[in-house]
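Summary of Year 1 activities. Much of the first year was spent building the evaluation harness for sequence design. The harness presents a backbone, in tokenized form, and records the residue chosen at every position. We chose the following record to illustrate the format because it has been used consistently in internal testing since the harness was completed.
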């Protein structure tokens, strides 16, 4: 049915289960894997603007920055070498997510989390003690490997552990930890920028969250899904009863076992992924991280101090403003945790998209109005406050929509046998575009000027239409019954045949609302 969207709701049976302390603790520990990613996003921008760090490792960049007396606000601070240092981590993360894919599938989710923690820990120590650029880059690559393993395994772990009705909330614990990591890094940078050796503390402290996830992962049980997949059915049953807080788990256990039998039939996760029945989750999982990065969020996350400097704040004030966006990022993620299983993923995606679009247009107009195309001008205090206000509203919108949902949705829509490979696709695409944005933003700002905000705004419009038409609601659907969601979607149903549906005892109810945009 071209041009229209059917919102389908699948009501499979409901599994009994409570919100247990056991599941809460397991998810809390696992989501701390998000801290290492967040800390890294937040730390590099601040460190690379510290004089003592630049003069030690990148003296040519330092000299150039000092000589740069240009008044063009759009074209300051542009150094490919420095941005390459920042973004090298994302390339390492991309590569390691492929190795993580098979470890996660064959040895279980917890060992990938452990690998993530330990490599990140070693990377943090090397970085904190760095005496030359080689140590700096080596450390950075190890941090990237750690992020690749953690981001590949943690969202899967959370989505599989959680009861269907709380999956959104528990999975978003990961994004909450990312935002806390970013905020902690911003605060630490703010304090450490005042000391010559401050960059060592900033980089070395990354070891703290790495320590938490390394030790934490050793104490965690693996998910029932992964245990069954690896032939430990009895243990899986025990864990399932424990996480659900009831002995009445036979129905859910049967569904997991059926999913696992399908899983045993496949030869290669990657080949299977190309089959028509996997087309819907695959396309959605490629586009969601791509779109998430094209919201432009990392322009704010990486370059907030630079951006705030550009719009006329002094050094300290610009770091402070970055802290403000950090706090809003955390608080708005909490909003998402509260509403995601009640109102669903689509509402958040659509509202967030519209709000981001409005803010981007406003920032583009305000900055264009003040600096024109020459990039020369000054902003009054009130004017700057309005710009910061718009940026904050934009960050809030991202933080309750594309931020958490960019990790949640891809982790819950694949069948068990290729869930691990699916999550690798998510991480790899995300890291690739994080790298690209990190690498080209400053050059783009210099060339596109205030038009850059309209550029990202255009993408936000496209992604919002994409969600409206092609992303079905997945709230409250048991994870091993997702195939029913695709089977009931107006567009994707043609890729799923009856023989692909192996879920047992499911009564499907289908409520179709035709909405014509
Ligand atoms: C994104 C990151 C981003 C962060 C901001 C995450 O979901 O993947 O790229 O920096 O949100 O909070």
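For this record, the design step produced the sequence shown next.
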């Amino acid at each position: 049915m071209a041009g229209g969207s059917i919102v389908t709701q699948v009501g499979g049976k409901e599994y009994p289960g409570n919100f247990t302390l056991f599941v809460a603790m397991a998810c809390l520990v696992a989501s701390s894997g998000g801290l290492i990613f967040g800390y890294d996003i937040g730390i590099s921008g601040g460190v690379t603007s510290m004089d003592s760090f630049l003069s030690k490792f990148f003296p040519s960049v330092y000299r150039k920055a000092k000589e740069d007396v240009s008044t063009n606000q759009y074209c300051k601070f542009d150094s490919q070498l420095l941005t390459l240092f920042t973004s090298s981590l994302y390339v390492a993360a991309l590569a390691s997510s492929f190795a993580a894919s098979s470890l996660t599938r064959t040895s279980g989710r917890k060992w990938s989390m452990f690998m993530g923690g330990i490599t990140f820990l070693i990377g943090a120590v090397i970085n904190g003690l760095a005496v030359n650029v080689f140590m700096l880059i080596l450390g950075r690559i190890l941090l990237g490997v750690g992020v690749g393993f953690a981001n590949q395994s943690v969202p899967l772990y959370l989505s599989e552990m959680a009861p269907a009705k709380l999956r959104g909330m528990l999975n978003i614990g990961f994004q909450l930890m990312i935002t806390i990591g970013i905020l902690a890094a911003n605060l630490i940078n703010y304090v450490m920028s005042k000391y010559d050796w401050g960059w060592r503390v900033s980089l070395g402290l990354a070891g703290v969250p790495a320590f938490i996830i390394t030790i934490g992962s050793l104490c965690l049980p693996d998910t029932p899904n992964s245990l069954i997949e690896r032939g430990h059915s009895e243990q899986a049953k025990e864990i399932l009863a424990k996480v659900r807080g009831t002995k009445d788990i036979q129905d859910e256990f049967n569904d997991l076992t059926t999913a696992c039998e399908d899983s045993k039939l496949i030869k290669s996760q990657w080949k299977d992924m190309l089959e028509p029945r996997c087309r819907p989750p695959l396309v959605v999982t490629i586009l969601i991280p791509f779109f998430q990065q094209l919201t432009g969020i990392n322009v704010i996350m990486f370059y907030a101090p630079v951006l705030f400097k550009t719009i006329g704040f002094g050094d300290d004030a610009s770091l402070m403003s970055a802290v403000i966006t950090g706090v809003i990022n955390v608080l708005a993620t909490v909003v998402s945790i509260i509403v995601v299983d009640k109102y669903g993923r689509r509402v958040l995606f659509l509202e967030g998209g519209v709000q981001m679009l409005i803010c981007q247009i406003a920032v583009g107009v305000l900055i264009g109005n003040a600096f024109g195309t020459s990039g020369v001008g000054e902003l009054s205090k009130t004017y700057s406050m309005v710009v910061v206000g718009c940026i904050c509203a934009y960050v809030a919108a991202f933080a309750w929509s594309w931020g958490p949902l960019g990790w949640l949705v891809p982790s819950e829509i694949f069948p068990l046998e290729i869930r691990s490979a699916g999550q690798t696709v998510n991480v790899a695409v995300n890291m690739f575009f994080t790298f690209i944005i990190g690498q080209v933003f400053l050059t783009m700002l210099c060339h596109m000027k205030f038009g850059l905000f309209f550029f990202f705004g255009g993408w936000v419009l496209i992604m919002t239409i994409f969600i409206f038409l092609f992303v079905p609601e997945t709230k409250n659907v048991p994870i091993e019954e997702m195939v029913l969601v695709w089977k009931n979607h107006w567009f994707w149903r043609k890729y799923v045949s009856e023989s692909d549906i192996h879920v047992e005892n499911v009564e499907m109810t289908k409520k179709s609302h035709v909405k014509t945009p």
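The longest strand covers residues 5-7. Quantitative recovery figures across the full test set are reported in Table 2.
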